[in-house]
Amino acid sequence: MKLSLRGVGKSYSGRRGETNALSPLDMDVRAGEFISMVGPSGCGKSTLLHIVAGLEPPSAGTVDLDGERVRGPGAELGLMFQQQTLFPWLSVRENVRFPLTLAHRRSRVGAGDPDRQAAQVEGLLRLVGLWDFRDSYPAELSGGMQQRAALARALVGQPEVLLMDEPFGALDAQTREEMQELLLHLIQRHRITTLFVTHDVDEALLLSDRVVVFSERPGRVLATLDVTFARAARSSELKLDEAFLHQKRAILALLRGRPRTATQRDRLLLGLTNTRSEGGS
Ligand code: ADP
Description:
six-stranded mixed β-sheet; Rossmann fold
């Protein structure tokens, strides 16, 4: 298993007492798998991502990456968040190269050898369509272009796992769709193990192998759905497909607290054989 979470839970203590953010959960992620997490605001999705990233210690439980305990942030993880996180004083190219220059990445692929680094950065900038803007600064880019640069930066260290927290949440609908298509293309090409937080059920179904549906805070897993649409068939067009809409309705019902019991037809049509619905209020 690439990533194994056992009993991972989180509560925060502050002036207003204890906030129970995330109920203890188990999750196993296979190498190359793309998992989306959907759920109401405040149910602990970002918290979970931060714990996996080693940015936040869990209150309970353990996270193992390739069998090794995650105890802090490391080069094995690529991060991408909703907010623009590029350094404004660095050009696009310098931003994308930045992770390779960090001391703790020196032992990673591409680090240390300037020619190799430059080639790697160029390859990624071309892949995300920003080569012509390599010397621009973040303020000179549109929101979509900034997120493409952030995506290139997240990938440049060749991470074992990519952690994405609503990376397209602040983009307009059309740019968001373009980013989804770009990510689909990247997934097909590189099969990077990815944990992806989104509010957008369409986006989750389009991109994922599995969708994990969370309850309200403190988040617990209501269901895990297998998404079985062929990777090659995935594009924005898929969102109009009957089976897609059916699966979307099932997820929305769970999110609204009205879980449907999957019928035999659902199971055949939607590949829900591994759905583990624990009910829901
Ligand atoms: P989501 O990503 O699902 O919207 P979050 O993981 O951001 O939810 O937050 C889950 C809960 O934990 C929320 O109630 C939030 O207010 C609380 N929380 C998140 N981070 C902190 C923190 N650093 N200190 C205290 N409470 C926090």
